[in-house]
Design goal:
The structure holds two protein chains of two kinds.
Chain A (H helix, E strand, L loop, with lengths): L19 H32 L1 H11 L2 H28 L3 E2 L2 E2 L2 H25 L1
Helix pairs in contact in A: 1-2, 1-3, 3-4
Chain B lengths: L4 E8 L9 E8 L6 H12 L18 E4 L2 E4 L11 E5 L6 E3 L2 E2 L2 H9 L21 H5 L2 H4 L6 H5 L1 H5 L6 H12 L6 H8 L13 H5 L6 H21 L6
Parallel strand pairs in B: 1-5
Antiparallel strand pairs in B: 1-2, 3-4, 3-5, 6-7
Helix pairs in contact in B: 2-7, 7-10
Chain lengths: 130, 247
């Protein structure tokens, strides 16, 4: 009898396809690439705006083309997915105890959505005013 | 007579004979009230006494019978045959070296668990004559959930971070560190900090959350780690703003 522990190989590239939970996690991580790219486009847009109206209109026309629209739509889907999954796990990260009782998770999640709606409405209002 | 049977495909590995593990199939009788551990005990008693595995209490308390059943880490003593199809695949816990059949080498987990000093580090030692450390129900409620950990290692088996990055301290050890940090009798937070607040500690957790999904005692290690990250971030900024805060 001798010890000869066997170490099973782990796939460094395919592990996230093995389990639905891992896959959903990777999709949440992947969403950051789209949101990051969207932010770069936004900065690029500001740069074009600084170059003058004509430059900016060429930029927006390109953004409204089929590829730009498809990218924006995909980013929107990923952003919603990211927001939803991130808000769902907030009760784990910030359990709130009030008067000796733990606030139920759904209240914390709902508070995040309310705050999100309030901030969005404020941005929208500012956009309408200016 | 045709009684219902179940096929168990069990990963076998004998370090004296096998170059690598292989699956062996056993046919066992089906019983409505049998858990997978009962079926494995049947194999051991009636079919093949060479099969090796760990178990003790048969009631989800001791934490020894963790296995990967149809891809998910579970305690085989609270996993019923009736919840599975007639073919069940049983492997040892993932992310640990296999010693023999379903038995894994848990040394890495034990050393990580020890490294977070999972015991009460009190302000002053008390002798037995001094009596108990008193604690109110409210003080207990703060960390009670984390005391339920039975060190079954299912969370390590489920954690892709631990699978790909062995130095990661891992879910159960970090959850237990959090448990003692939250305990009002304990002053060991700074003594645990070197391990807990390091990169291989809480900061290499990327919050997949699989640990909390598989935990049979609802400890929620993923939650504990995120809370520890928030506390550690607070420490960082307080130390930055008030360098005299900690000597």
């Amino acid at each position: 009898m001798s010890r000869r522990p066997y170490i099973r190989p782990v796939s460094t590239t395919g592990w996230w396809l093995r389990d639905g939970l891992y896959f959903r996690y990777m999709m949440r991580e992947l969403s950051s690439l789209f949101i990051g790219a969207f932010t770069i486009f936004l900065i690029l847009g500001l740069y074009r705006l600084s170059q003058g109206r004509a430059e900016f209109e060429v930029f927006t026309a390109r953004l409204l083309g089929p590829a730009g629209t498809a990218f924006a739509l995909l980013t929107l889907i990923f952003a919603i997915y990211h927001t939803y999954t991130w808000f769902q796990v907030t009760p784990k990260a910030m359990p709130i105890v009030l008067a000796g009782k733990r606030i139920p998770g759904f209240v914390i999640v709902a508070a995040h959505w309310l705050l999100f709606a309030a901030v969005s409405a404020t941005v929208w209002l500012l956009a309408v005013i200016f | 007579m045709s009684e219902r049977t179940v096929e168990l495909e069990i990963l076998r590995y004998d370090p004296d004979q096998d170059q690598e593990p292989y699956f062996q199939t056993y046919t066992v009788p089906y019983h409505e009230d049998w858990v997978v551990l009962d079926a494995i005990n049947y194999i051991k008693d009636e079919l093949d006494r060479t099969l090796s595995y760990r178990w003790s209490c048969h009631m989800a308390v001791c934490g020894s019978c963790g296995m990967v059943i149809n891809g998910t880490p579970v305690l085989s003593c609270n996993t019923f045959l009736r919840d599975y199809p007639d073919k069940i695949r049983i492997e040892p816990l993932r992310n640990f070296p296999i010693e023999r059949d379903l038995i894994v080498d848990m040394d890495d987990f034990i050393s990580k668990l020890t490294s977070v000093k999972p015991w009460v580090i009190a302000r002053e030692e008390r002798s037995v004559d001094d009596g108990e450390y008193l604690q109110t129900p409210a003080q207990l409620a703060v960390f009670k959930q984390y005391t339920a950990c039975i060190n079954c290692m299912l969370c390590y088996s489920a954690c892709p971070q631990y699978a790909l990055n062995e130095p990661f301290v891992g879910p159960a050890a970090l959850a237990l560190a959090h448990r003692y940090n939250l305990d009002n009798r304990d002053i060991g937070r700074s003594a645990r900090e070197d391990v807990v607040a390091s990169n291989p500690g809480i900061w290499e957790c990327s919050f997949v959350g699989a640990c909390s999904e598989v935990c049979p005692k609802l400890v929620d290690p993923a939650g504990a780690i995120q809370q520890a990250k928030i506390a550690s971030t607070g420490d960082y900024f307080l130390d930055f703003l008030m360098p005299w805060r900690r000597k």
